[in-house]
Write a structure and sequence with these properties.
The chain folds into two domains: 7-55, 4-hydroxy-3-methylbut-2-enyl diphosphate reductase, catalytic domain (Cobalt-precorrin-4 Transmethylase, domain 1), CATH 3.40.1010; 58-144, 4-hydroxy-3-methylbut-2-enyl diphosphate reductase, catalytic domain (Cobalt-precorrin-4 Transmethylase, domain 1), CATH 3.40.1010. 40% of the residues lie in helices and 8% in strands. The chain has seven helices and three strands; from the N terminus they run H-H-H-E-H-E-H-E-H-H. The protein has helices at residues 7-11, 31-44, 58-73, 86-97, 113-116, 132-144, 166-173; strands spanning 76-80, 101-105, 122-126. A three-stranded parallel beta sheet has the order 2-1-3.
Length: 181
């Protein structure tokens, strides 16, 4: 296994058998960053295989697409998420790459007043694993400050459904699993 982090890494990459090569990607990385690296890999190693596109974390992909739109509308974006969350950190990076200030916070108490000075439009988003309650608490902080113009920006409608594993579906069909009441 070889770690490839940049397009330059791909250019310098030498492998013993380029006809037997596969790649995987951390699903919480920036979609834009990995796109360039994957293209470079495919150009250098045409036989390379990768994961199915439906293996990519839909929440990460959707949140990054949404924060791009949010960044266009806002003067600053507050991202709720843990500092050890790759997903949340990528949201900050994507926003800053578009020229909009962005800050990663664990909760509303970490908002610093100087971030908001001269920034009339504030966007709020969160990493995929951040509880919605934290977002609602932050929105309430702005309401308590007198903000009345609050809205939602819906870029992508999420209606993802996940199938139960086949073994569980079969057991349920055969009435072999008790269903909680």
């Amino acid at each position: 296994m070889i770690l490839v982090e940049t397009v330059d890494d791909v250019e310098n990459l030498e492998v013993p058998d380029p006809e037997r090569l596969a790649f995987i990607s951390q699903t919480t990385l920036s979609v834009d960053e990995t796109k360039g690296i994957i293209e470079a890999l495919k150009n250098k190693f045409p036989a390379i295989i990768g994961p199915r596109t439906d293996d990519i974390c839909y929440a990460t992909t959707n949140r990054q697409a949404s924060v791009k739109e949010l960044a266009k509308e806002c003067d600053v974006v507050l991202v709720i998420g843990s500092t050890n969350s790759s997903n949340s950190n990528r949201l900050v990076d994507v926003t800053r790459d578009l020229g909009t200030d962005a800050y990663l916070i664990d909760n509303a108490s970490q908002v610093q007043e100087e971030w908001l000075e001269g920034k009339p439009v504030v966007g709020i988003t969160s990493g995929a694993s951040a509880p919605d309650e934290l977002v609602q608490n932050l929105v309430q902080v702005f309401r308590d400050r007198g903000t009345t113009d609050i809205g939602e920006l819906e870029v992508i409608q999420e209606n993802m459904r996940f199938m139960l594993p086949k073994e569980i579906r079969v057991a349920l069909a055969d009435n072999e699993l008790p269903i909680a009441q």
